[in-house]
Amino acid sequence: MPEQLRTSTRDLEELRKRATVWLSARVGATVSVSEMSRPSENGLSSETLFFTATWDGRSTRCVARLAPAVEAVPVFPSYDLRAQFHIMRLAREKAGIPAPRALWFEPDPGPLGTPFFVMERAEGEVPPDVMPYTFGGWLHDASPADQRRLQDATVGVVAALHRTAFTPQDLAPFGRAGLRAHVEAQRAYYEWAHGEHRIPLLERAFGWLEAHWPDDPGPDVLTWGDARVGNVMYRGFDPVAVLDWEMAAVGPPELDLSWMIFLHRFFQDITIGAGLPGMPEFMRREDICATYRELTGYEPRDLDFYEMYAALRHGVIMARIWQRRIRFGELPLPDDPDDLVLHRATIEQLLAGYEPAS
User: Fold this and answer.
1) Phi, psi dihedral angles at 253 (to 5 degrees)
2) Which of 52, 227, 309, 353 could form a disulfide with 34 if both were Cys (CB 3.0 to 4.6 A apart)?
3) Where is the Aminoglycoside phosphotransferase domain (predicted)?
4) How far is CA 88 from CA 118, 160, 183, in A?
């Protein structure tokens, strides 16, 4: 895994001063904003800032999410912060999910140079991406029973979101529904993300999807989009904050389930490649699907298709991230553009398992 990547070019002290002016006007009182900081782990898209705001004798620990500056070479082409703010409130108020309490949304780029929102900061532990939680640490070292408790509770978050009845007005910010719309959006994202370097492996995977399209993609639900343990804060192996809603969409439940399964496989494969055992009994497909079925009554289907799609989606994101590192002079451009995909071997293995030998 790469070291912590550069995600911002903005000056923290300047942001603190501007946030102080904005928040004082917002709450109608003189506000003191503490020194700002950025998280040291996880998160490669929206810019995240930590600070404490104090007014009228009360202090609130806050997290601000800002769309990244263009010069930071963003991971995604656009950042709908209004939709993220909206889904956190929906998840918390309608689905009973411990999404962070959404405090303020500011659509005007004037105050901080870009739209942003502020949420309340929670306390807990997050399984890290760097180094991956499969290498060691509190989750890796936990008992099998506690690991399963955390796994089941995380599937429970997804199930609670999926089984909640949202109104058409609730779902309007998330655009077109359905698997076809989702894949078309991912194809458009790939066309933007690859820049000057097309990636044959990912284009092969897109072709595989078309050749193996499900006969019935299933019901459409509101999906989290980035459903994985690295986007959850835990206390005592129970979720206390469900984070990172920027990939939310309306589509089949399997989008979230396969993402959760594949992202663990991604880290597990890295760990095995480093000569360590990792966590082979954690986040197994059969266990995730069994728990989801018990909680919702729905039988997940076509998981081979959705696992390939998850690997492809993650491949586009990883290729963009590695191209960012090339842009910042941290890595050279590889001779083979397929090497821009960190989990190239996994996608090749999936394709080899499903395609007839030539």
Assistant:
1) -55, -30
2) 52
3) 55-263
4) 11, 13, 24
Domain 12-120: CATH class, spelled out? alpha beta
Which residue, among 271, 288, 290, has the nearest Cα to 279 in the 3D structure? 271
| Exposure on the CB side of residue 151, measured as CA atoms within 13 A | 26
Q: Omega of the bond prior to 247 within 30 degrees of 0, cis?
A: no
- Please state, in angstroms and rounded to a whole number, the distance separating the CA atoms of residues 226 and 124: 19
Q: The whole model's pTM is what?
A: 0.92
**Domain definitions of the chain by residue range:** 12-120, 133-354
pLDDT digits (tens, 9 = 90+) for 68-85: 877 777 888 888 899 999
d(CA 211, CA 124): 44
Annotated catalytic residue: which of 129, 226, 256, 302?
A: 226
End-to-end CA gap in the chain: 33
Q: Could you tell me the fold of the domain covering 133-354?
A: Aminoglycoside 3'-phosphotransferase; Chain: A, domain 2 (3.90.1200)
Please say if 220 is a catalytic residue: no
Crossing angle for the helix pair 254-273 and 344-354, to the nearest 10 degrees: 120
Q: How does pLDDT run across 5-36, given as a tens digit for each residue?
A: 445 567 999 999 999 999 999 999 999 999 99
